[in-house]
Amino acid sequence: MNTIEQAAKRLAELKRAGFDVPVPEIPGAAAASPVPVEAPAAVPVEAPVPVAAAAETKIAPVKPAAGRSSAAVVAAARNGVVEALTSSGRRSREVMLDLARLEREGYLVPAQARSQLAEQMRIIKRPLLANARGESAQTLSRPNLIQVVSAMPGEGKTFFAINLAMSIAMEVDLSVLLVDADVLRPSVLARCGIEPARGLMDVLQSPSIELHDVMLRTNVAKLSILPAGTANAQSTELLASGAMEALLDELAAKFSDRIVVFDAPPLIPTTESRVLASRVGQVVMVVEAGKTTHAQVSQAYAAVEQCPVVLSVLNRARGKAGEAYGYYYAS
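^ that's the sequence the OP posted. Answer follows.
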């Protein structure tokens, strides 16, 4: 069998696999002897989806995208790659949160809609959401961007940030993006049972990486996660860069029904949180009861004084009914 006959046979196989492959005119092809078409069952299909499965799932034919020739599409199919070529571009990857593990470790999950923790988070999130909707007396810039911080490490800010994001995801008309902005010691993915992935730092470093390339959709409706990404020695400078300013503008304006929660580094031992606090609309300061000193709290408040709204949460406080959270406003 000569080269032309082999090419014609391969095109016939691709058509039977569900690909809409245009057949270019090949000089001399008309003079070639006819190629017998074998029965589909006898033809091995190299594409990852069997012919029968392709018929059942109705996979759309692969068509050339802008700037791609038919030959490029044929080459992709020949390599066993079924490409999703759409005008809207790429879609963010989906991950599965280990909800059973999160619940065992004391986190809020959707099944706990009437738990004590769920009620406490409802109380805490209400003023934040009112500000995000423009219902407060103040006119805020980027009010849907909420930064969660603490004065020192180990006060429970990541625990609170995850719970706040989970609670907001339970809202009827809102979605939430949880950003692991603790770029020095990221822990959101590990706590949620997700493998490390590219994220915020990668978007800021490389113009070719877009937000949807690294944002993770989850099995919790209306909850997405943006990982911290690849560690960088210039993380403070990146968070203070024009690229970060543009990203915050995109996060604040692109989706009017999305709240963005940043789990940021502790304020006193780092500089990253101070930079971010000057650019978000609201800050939540997590303070551990019986541990954080008055001097540390005062220093932390001074570091975020440029943010017009600061909501403070007293973590691990014990009341009459054993509440885990108390809350109060601080200006």
